[in-house]
Amino acid sequence: MVIVSSSDITIRRVSEPHGWMGNMSPYPLMCDGERYPTAEHLFQALRFASNDARALIRAERSPMGAKMRAKSLAAQHELIVVPRTPNDVANMEYVIRLKLEQHPYLHDYLMYTGSQKIVEDCTRRPNESGLFWGAKLVNGQWIGQNWLGTLWMIERGDKRPVWN
Description:
Elements: E1 2-3, E2 9-11, E3 29-31, E4 34-36, H1 39-45, H2 51-59, H3 63-73, H4 86-102, H5 105-111, E5 118-120, H6 128-133, E6 136-138, E7 141-143, H7 147-156
Parallel strand pairs: 2-5
Antiparallel strand pairs: 1-7, 3-4, 6-7
């Protein structure tokens, strides 16, 4: 458990100051010669072996649409990456790196965070996925694995945690 500090950086909504770190933020990414409208589109597509499934996800108009399409495709197409596993975390790390490489000014924004803790705040959606990628605030403490925030801190140069 982590004690909340007033200097913690939270990722919640795209419209908020650090919303650019969220997968739903409007930063398109190129991967394997294909354009993905957001990091969420690419992240969801990377779970599938099928180019057809990837194309359907890529074609979704919104990042939430991409997420929902991926969920619906999981029954019809082979997943090569199971959600919330070390390979899924590795894909997220890859997506974050692409985002920083393809939008270099975001690296400057990341460096401006200094040594502040970065947390994806899933307090309003504390489901299994939310508590894996983020954390919820309970009595002044963050509860959850917070892999998204951790990966951003790793990209910033913080120490890499051991997978548990």
